[in-house]
Write a structure and sequence with these properties.
Radius of gyration: 17 Å
Strand content: 5-15%
Number of strands: 10
Structural class: alpha/beta
Distance between the termini: 27 Å
CATH superfamily: Ribokinase
Low-confidence stretches: none
Order of helices and strands: EHEHEHEEHEHEHHHEEEHHH
Shape: globular
């Protein structure tokens, strides 16, 4: 049975904010993102997590990126990583306090460089049962490039159809013609929550299928997926379940795009604009009673 992610559902999912909260009341987020040519991905996925209610976020990225974006994100803690000659994350990097982060996101702008691939697979192999992880973009592509079976623990995977085609070794045309089927297969294969992006984004746990009712062509811009990754991570940090964070995250992301397009038109919205409209999306949900 197909269900729809609508106003009634998301109002009930919105996490409470205790007046006595502090940054330690929420799970710490580690965002592993960016490479020399993709500093924007690191920025968008980080700032949107905080916009969505995260209390503490550390960005692990190559040093050049950190020096570029840090002046625009004073709220973020930075973990500098070594870059290889191509400007990607070097495979010999180690994040010594990885287990200190109950929420991790990985993939936005990290590239499919050989080193980035090795680093991605190493991180995924170290995730424990007490950590939730959002896997996006190049982390999905890096998974797809290996024959090693990866057991995902407590994961949300957020592919667009082409990334899912690579991961499942199924043609893009087949994915597009059977989106619900292959979203469900992905969740069953990897024991994860799948967010198959696109018009009417699909969210599934392998059993139930949910279809999002927000969003428009304004979101068909580079960086939009990075914003979604950040929103979901921010919601996970507020102790929502994997499924509920995915459901609420895709709705807020789409609603932010809807509100932005009312002001800016569907033609002119940028991914960075969407981050600015996240508060308006939250406000609309809060006033849905």
């Amino acid at each position: 049975m197909v269900k729809y992610i609508d106003k009634k559902l998301v109002y009930e999912l919105l996490p409470d904010r205790d007046e006595n909260s502090n940054k330690g009341s929420f799970y710490k987020i580690l965002n592993i993102a960016g490479s020399v040519n993709y500093s924007g991905a690191a920025y968008l996925s980080s700032i949107s997590a905080l916009r969505a209610g995260g209390g503490f976020l550390a960005l692990a990225s190559v040093g050049d990126i950190i020096s570029r974006i840090a002046p625009n994100m004073p709220e973020v803690v930075y973990i500098p990583l070594k870059a290889n000659l191509n400007g990607a994350i070097s495979a010999d990097n180690k994040i010594t306090d990885l287990n200190d982060y109950p929420v991790i996101s990985i993939g936005c702008g990290i590239t499919t460089d050989t080193d980035a691939k090795k680093f991605t697979l190493d991180i995924l192999s170290k995730i424990n049962e007490n950590q939730n992880i959002v896997i996006d973009a190049d982390a999905i592509n890096n998974m797809a490039s290996t024959d090693v079976k990866i057991a995902l623990k407590n994961a949300i995977i957020t592919p667009h159809p082409k990334e899912l085609s690579r991961l499942l070794k199924v043609s893009l045309e087949e994915i597009l013609e059977n989106r619900e089927k292959y979203a469900r297969i992905t969740s069953q294969t990897y024991d994860c929550i799948t967010v198959l992006k696109g018009h009417n984004t699909i969210v599934t746990d392998g059993e139930e299928i949910y279809i999002n009712t927000t969003g428009n062509s304004a979101l068909a811009k580079a960086g939009s997926g990075d914003v979604l990754t950040g929103i979901i991570s921010g919601l996970l940090s507020q102790k929502l379940s994997l499924l509920n964070a995915a459901l609420l995250g895709v709705y807020i992301h789409g609603l932010s795009g809807d509100i932005a397009s009312e002001d800016l038109t569907k033609y002119c919205v940028l991914a960075s604009d969407v981050t600015d409209y996240i508060p308006f999306a939250f406000n609309e949900i809060l006033n849905m009673e």
